[in-house]
């Protein structure tokens, strides 16, 4: 099962729902890994919606598990990208020419949804035109508050910043603009005293 | 110029000092012997003569040195000042508000001469004399918000108002109590307050937001907030936490009176007329424990507040580890006598320490 | 700082003004221009803001909200345009018939409940009749800043189309006027289609028009936060009724041509307000007892709050029945 019940948290931490068909002039769907399951569920509820949609899908380690099934839904446009970064030029091209009435459906990991949402808002899409459904990995995208570097796919607390090497603890405080949670040095008041890392949500 | 400005530092050798004048006008934040969150808003329409509430933007003996410290922070990290593109008009609003207020409230220090949109601004303490075109960004060395807040004490959060919420879409933040503008920019009122314990459950932020959304032109408001800081450091940012956090462990019974500071924020709120944004100046005042206890009422009360503060608040305010040390020190200045209501020092009417 | 917060004056500060010009635009609408007695500049304002004009109508105090329609960058004067409402309670008729150039009035500091969203890549304005007024100040500001906008303006007839000639003369490519007496309809579906991302729609006009725009936009996939509306409800006259103000211990009789809020103020009780049009929520008042029917006319209270009989917005809502007791 790809669903995870996040514990209740603070007000800046994103809350995810279930993708719902919505009226709109165009429908853009972006998913990674198990996020494909959310699109497949949506296709069961409203096959015509998915047939009208443009889907960008990043398998991210799931290989071909979902690609044929997504293709079977018959989306108007279907693009498989090897990574989110690789899909960005296409995404920007689509958003630049998009019109009001566009609905954006995001599904999969927090990192993917956060980055695509930030890109869409940057292009003027209202936040309420965007729906998100979490599926799959609970790894987090973290910003080091000290060096500003982003560490992807963090699964333990504390973790080591991939850029400056400080040991950071994982906060729930989240920036929509950066699409990242905040990491703060764990041993600032007692240098060298770094607790053993534990899996997130353990 | 009538005011004498200190030459002092807020880092390294920490030569910051409050004069007797600055101690007596310190905005002591506790109106009774205990503390709990409240919305505690009031109109910002002046206050007793000489108090920090009297002028729209208080200027004191630390002005020149604080502006020097801000310049150092910005040179190290320009991300401490940011403005999203739609906030430029609000920046001009803020520049106008501060220039008009300061030139009217401190005519011996600041002058503003306006001929249509041709403006001349003279800031004597900082030696600035600039002529520019109002609403034309190309005529200033920085954006309007950065230009004027490099010349004004306190941090500034500039909030866009939409969708029945306030959005932190611009700011100048170099004297903060451990929050990051670079991280929080673009957040709404509930999001940027998310890390604060208890207050959400108490409905404090809902009520505060409702109040702030209705702050109108010509009717500014204010409140106080407080925390604790070891050493008189203005820049207690999360960015530099790995540099200042360790200073918290340097307290000893011998140095606590000089090193431990009460940090008070005078927060004010002004509706900005041209943009309909709200500006939220957060002015930081620091005072050493050894200076607070020279006011007997404040010494008694501070001991009681620190002693009785719930654990989670002491933790959030970052002094839970040092609380025993603080209480050992402060208890020497609490003789158990009752204290008069309100925040004022009441030096003439309150009895001296009875031990 | 004091322990107890000070009480703000209801409605905020006011500005004394002198009527400098009265310009009839057509059979129904007249423009009033104000300057300050000492010639000082007015406070700047943001487009979409309104001011509350205080009038003394034959001993009866009236406070009516009007959109500021002058250029926000011109602080030498404020201007409003007032549509005469012969069926109404008299505020607009008072301005049209009893106010002359040189008269002194008092207006509130500007309050904005209909601001531009400054993030917008483009602004689409939809005006119905006198709903044109806030857009005049918005257009003035966007022209100065180089903002993208277009206006669609629905009027009854050419002779009643305030400012239409002026607007089409200056901005021929951006202004579109539709006259209902020529069977011209505002092509809403067409103009919502194809707007670039980041477009915001603003509508000011009668309730039916606002509902139509909101529903149509939602059907086209526009989220609510990109659709802005302002509907000032003029308080409607009604049958007289009595109210007891429990906290003040006063009984007040509400006349047919005054609002409940005006009657409360006439009795000397200071009550909070900002818009006086059922939109801002400031005057929300607890109902202690109501033996009869609350006639809700605001768009602030939720439906369940209206049904509960526990809240009333005295700026526009009324009462019919035996006994009404308010916590005021």
UniProtKB/TrEMBL annotation, chain A:
Domain of life: Bacteria
Alphabetized UniProt keyword annotations: 2Fe-2S, Flavoprotein, Iron, Iron-sulfur, Metal-binding, Oxidoreductase
InterPro entries reported for this sequence: DmmA-like_C, DmmA-like_N
The keyword Nucleotide-binding is annotated on this UniProt entry: no
DNA-binding among keywords: no
Positions of the Dimethylamine monooxygenase subunit DmmA-like C-terminal domain: 141-184
Record-level Gene Ontology MF annotations: 2 iron, 2 sulfur cluster binding; metal ion binding; oxidoreductase activity
Every Dimethylamine monooxygenase subunit DmmA-like N-terminal domain range: 9-130
Protein name according to UniProt: Uncharacterized protein
Organism annotation: Roseivivax sediminis
Automatic annotation (TrEMBL), chain B:
Source taxon at top rank: Bacteria
Any Pfam family hit: HODM_asu-like
Name of the protein in question: DUF3445 domain-containing protein
Automatic annotation (TrEMBL), chain C:
Cofactor: FMN
Positions of the FAD-binding FR-type domain: 12-117
Keyword Flavoprotein in annotation: yes
Swiss-Prot/TrEMBL keywords: 2Fe-2S, Flavoprotein, FMN, Iron, Iron-sulfur, Metal-binding, Oxidoreductase
InterPro entries attached to this UniProt entry: 2Fe-2S_ferredoxin-like_sf, 2Fe-2S_ferredoxin-type, 2Fe2S_fd_BS, Beta-grasp_dom_sf, DmmA-like_N, FAD-bd_FR_type, FNR_nucleotide-bd, MRET
GO MF term list: 2 iron, 2 sulfur cluster binding; metal ion binding; oxidoreductase activity
Pfam families per record: DmmA-like_N, Fer2
Keyword hit for Iron: yes
Residue stretches making up the 2Fe-2S ferredoxin-type domain: 241-328
CDD domains recorded: fer2, PDR_like
Domain of life of the source: Bacteria
PROSITE patterns for this protein: 2FE2S_FER_1 (PS00197), 2FE2S_FER_2 (PS51085), FAD_FR (PS51384)
Protein known as: Ferredoxin-NADP reductase
Native organism: Roseivivax sediminis
């Amino acid at each position: 099962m790809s669903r995870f019940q996040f514990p209740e948290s603070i007000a800046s931490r994103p809350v995810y729902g279930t993708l719902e068909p919505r009226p709109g002039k165009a429908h853009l769907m972006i998913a990674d890994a198990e996020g494909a399951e959310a699109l497949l569920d949506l296709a069961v509820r409203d096959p015509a919606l998915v047939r009208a949609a443009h889907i960008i899908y990043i398998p991210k380690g799931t290989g071909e598990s979902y690609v044929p099934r997504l293709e079977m839904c018959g989306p108007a446009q279907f693009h498989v990208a090897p990574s989110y970064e690789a899909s960005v030029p296409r995404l920007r091209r689509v958003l630049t020419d998009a019109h009001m009435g566009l609905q954006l459906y995001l599904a999969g990991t927090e990192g993917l949804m956060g980055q695509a949402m930030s890109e869409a808002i940057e292009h003027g899409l209202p936040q309420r035109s965007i729906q998100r459904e979490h599926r799959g990995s609970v790894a987090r995208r973290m910003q080091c508050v000290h060096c500003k570097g982003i560490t992807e796919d963090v699964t333990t607390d504390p973790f080591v910043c991939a850029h400056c090497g400080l040991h950071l603890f994982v906060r729930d405080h989240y920036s929509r603009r950066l699409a990242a949670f905040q990491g703060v040095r764990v041993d600032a008041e007692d240098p060298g005293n770094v607790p053993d890392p534990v899996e997130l949500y353990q | 110029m009538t005011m004498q400005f200190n030459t002092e530092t807020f880092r390294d050798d920490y030569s910051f000092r409050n004069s007797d004048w600055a101690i007596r006008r310190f905005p002591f934040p506790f109106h009774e012997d205990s503390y709990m969150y409240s919305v505690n808003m009031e109109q910002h329409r002046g206050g007793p003569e000489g108090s920090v509430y009297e002028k729209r933007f208080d200027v004191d003996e630390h002005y020149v040195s604080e502006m020097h410290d801000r310049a150092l922070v910005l040179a190290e990290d320009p991300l401490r000042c940011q403005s999203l593109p739609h906030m430029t008009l609000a920046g001009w609003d803020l520049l106008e508000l501060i220039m008009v207020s300061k030139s009217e409230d401190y005519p011996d220090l600041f002058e503003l001469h306006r001929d249509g949109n041709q403006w001349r601004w003279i800031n004597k303490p900082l030696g600035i004399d600039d002529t520019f075109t109002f609403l034309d960004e190309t005529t200033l060395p920085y954006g309007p918000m950065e230009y004027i807040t490099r010349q004004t004490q306190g941090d500034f959060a500039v909030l866009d108002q939409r969708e029945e919420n306030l959005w932190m879409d611009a700011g100048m933040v170099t004297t903060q109590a451990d929050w990051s503008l670079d991280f929080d920019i673009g957040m709404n009122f509930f999001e940027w307050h998310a890390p604060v314990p208890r207050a959400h459950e108490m409905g404090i932020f809902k009520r505060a937001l409702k109040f702030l959304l209705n702050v109108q032109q010509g009717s500014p408001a204010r409140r106080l907030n407080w925390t604790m800081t070891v050493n008189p450091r203005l820049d207690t940012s999360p960015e530099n936490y790995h540099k200042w956090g360790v200073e918290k462990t340097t307290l000893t019974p011998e140095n606590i009176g000089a090193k431990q500071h009460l940090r008070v924020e005078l927060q004010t709120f002004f509706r900005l007329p041209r943009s309909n944004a709200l500006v939220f100046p957060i002015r930081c005042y620091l005072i050493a424990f050894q200076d607070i206890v020279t006011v007997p009422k404040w010494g008694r009360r501070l001991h009681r507040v620190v002693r009785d503060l719930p654990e989670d608040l002491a933790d959030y305010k970052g002094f839970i580890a040092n609380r025993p040390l603080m209480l050992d020190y402060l208890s020497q200045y609490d003789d158990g006598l009752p204290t008069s209501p309100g925040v004022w020092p009441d030096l003439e009417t309150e009895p001296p320490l009875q031990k | 700082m004091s322990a107890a917060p000070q009480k703000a004056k209801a409605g905020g500060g006011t500005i004394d003004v002198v009527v400098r010009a009265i310009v009839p635009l057509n059979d129904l609408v007249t423009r009033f221009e104000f300057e300050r007695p000492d010639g000082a500049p007015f406070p700047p304002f943001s487009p979409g803001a309104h001011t509350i004009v205080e009038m003394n109508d034959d001993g009866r105090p009236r406070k009516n909200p009007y959109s500021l329609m002058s250029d926000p960058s011109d602080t030498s004067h404020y201007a409003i345009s007032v549509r005469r409402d012969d069926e109404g309670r008299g505020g607009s008729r008072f301005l049209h018939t009893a106010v002359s150039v040189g008269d002194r009035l008092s207006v509130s500091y500007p309050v904005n409940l209909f601001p531009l969203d400054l993030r917008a890549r483009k602004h689409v304005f939809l005006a119905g009749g006198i709903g044109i007024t806030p857009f005049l100040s918005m257009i003035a500001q966007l022209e100065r800043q180089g903002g993208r906008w277009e206006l669609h303006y629905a009027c009854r007839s050419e002779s009643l189309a305030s400012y239409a000639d002026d607007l089409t003369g200056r901005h021929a490519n951006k202004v579109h006027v539709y006259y209902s007496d020529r069977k011209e309809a505002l092509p809403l579906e067409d103009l919502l289609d194809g707007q670039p991302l980041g477009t915001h729609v603003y509508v000011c006009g009668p309730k039916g028009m606002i509902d139509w725009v909101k529903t149509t936009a939602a059907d086209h996939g526009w989220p609510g936060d990109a659709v802005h509306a302002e509907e000032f409800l003029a308080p409607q006259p009604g049958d007289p009724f009595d109210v007891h103000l429990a906290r003040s211990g006063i009984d007040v009789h509400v006349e047919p041509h005054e609002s409940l809020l005006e009657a409360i103020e006439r009795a000397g009780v200071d009550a909070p307000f900002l818009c006086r049009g059922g939109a801002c929520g400031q005057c929300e008042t607890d109902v202690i007892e109501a033996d009869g029917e609350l006639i809700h006319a605001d768009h602030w209270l939720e439906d369940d709050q209206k049904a509960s009989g526990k809240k009333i917005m005295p700026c526009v809502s009324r009462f019919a029945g035996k006994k009404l007791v308010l916590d005021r």
